[in-house]
Amino acid sequence: MKLISTILLICSSLVLYSQNSNISFKTVSPLSVYSDIWNDIKYSKCNTAAHADYMSDDEKNTIYILNLIRTNPALFANTVLKKYPSMSGNDYLATDAYYFLSLVNTLKQLEPLGLLYPDKTCFESAQCHAASSGMAGYAGHKRINRDCEKKKLYNGECCDYGHKDPLEIILSLLIDEGVPSLGHRNIFLNSYSKIGLSIQPHKKYGYNAVFDFAY
């Protein structure tokens, strides 16, 4: 009986403490190195691929980061893009890189977008293309074997070459250096709701990542 009373007393104390304090429960965000703001519990919803057991950790984190950007574009511009040039050793980006600076301006003005949710059919489409492209050393959107052609499913597709780190992959496609139409950036910031993503070894570039998006 005394033990039960003690437990109840402890529980009551914890409830009173939480009610009378400004506790802000947080998670660990892949963007926390740029700002602790990203650890706020409200952004945990962006980790939509957390339980997609068919995906690698890098693939899950890539979707997580992309959702964080879509949820608060201006915050990403004011934290990650503000610090990225110096933290990555690419200081020139902050003052003399047209595509990078245009991305900063775009995100600062962009309204929040809906979350992307992992879709296994889109994943199989992306995985087949990334794996076959990697083995052949191919770069492009055309499916190079019959199996991948059958699995192909997307309304928008982005392919990246030479990066394995989730943030590097995303920034490569969002900056869209040398692509006047900004096609990859526009796809990333479109109103899609489903995503399939696969990062695979590549014979020529080391790694390639394929993103397949659907409505």
What would your notes on this structure say?
With 215 residues, the protein is α+β, with helices and mostly antiparallel strands. Helix content is 46%, strand content 12%. The protein has a four-stranded mixed β-sheet, sandwiched between helices. Helix 2 crosses helix 7. The protein is globular, with a radius of gyration of 21 Å. The N terminus is likely disordered.
Return the structural class: alpha+beta
Strand order of the largest sheet: 1-3-4-2
- Sheet with the most strands, sense and barrel status: 4 strands, mixed
Helix content: 40-55%
Q: Whole-number average pLDDT? A: 91
Write a compact overview of the structure shown.
It contains eight helices and four strands.
Topology, element by element:
Blueprint lengths: L1 H18 L37 H15 L1 H15 L10 H12 L7 E2 L1 H17 L9 H6 L4 E6 L4 H10 L7 H6 L5 E9 L3 E9 L1
Parallel strand pairs: 1-3
Antiparallel strand pairs: 2-4, 3-4
Helix pairs in contact: 2-3, 2-7, 3-4
Short descriptors:
single chain, 215 residues, alpha+beta, four-stranded mixed beta sheet, 8 helices, 12% strand, globular, disordered N terminus
